[in-house]
Amino acid sequence: MWASAEQSRINWVRNNQAQIRAALYSGLQDMVSQSDAEARTAPDLHSVGQRIILPSSFQGGPRHWYEQCQDALAICREECTIDFFITATCNPAWKEITDELFPGQTTSDRPDLVARIFHLKQKAIFADIIENGVLGAVSAYIYSNEWQKRGLPHFHSLFMMKAPFKLRETAQIDSCIRWTMF
Fold first, then answer.
1. Cα gap 155→169, rounded to integer Å
2. Which residues, listed in sequence order, are joined to residue 145 by a DSSP beta bridge?
């Protein structure tokens, strides 16, 4: 169902290029100017196809990621300093995962289960930090979820704290460094 919905979104983008101002991007002109600038040779027009521009509202497209990066940089610029960098990776031996596997199954057989358990644990971590204030009052945060090559999800997060909870001395920073497994 997800793939079908994604295909519908892509088809809409393909069929509505004029509405998303794709005329501003001319692939042929770009190809000609690039090859003129680089080698002063005639461009290979066999490699030019129909260019489809994905709008920034299309999640996962390059324009979407560029916009997300710009938003993250703006938040960091506004907050000035990043106080905590926290990363966590899914552990395939978590009891919540292993209890739900059928005999003979491995975690690579159930990526849906792994992703769901990881998402619940991530929400719990963020609730402890943001809502419960275990590190102090958070003024802003940014995070990114990724999948490792071995198939396990993990996240990277940046937390900016409010003024009284900012880390200013080496001893404060050292007191926060932990290696934990949950």
1. 27
2. 155
Place of tokens 């997060």: 157
Q: How far apart are CA 133 and CA 129, in angstroms?
A: 5
CB 136 within 8 A of CB 165: yes
Is the pLDDT reported for residue 115 higher than 70? yes
pLDDT (mean) for 137-144:
90
- Domains of the chain, by residue range, sit at 2-47, 62-176
Distance between CA atoms of 16 and 3, rounded to whole angstroms? 20
Q: What residue has token string 């490699």?
A: 47
Let me know if 2 is exposed, middle or buried by CB neighbors in 10 A (0-12, 13-18, 19+).
exposed
Alpha carbons 74 and 66: distance in angstroms, whole number? 12
3-class DSSP state of 32: helix
CA atoms within 13 A on the CB side of 15: 6
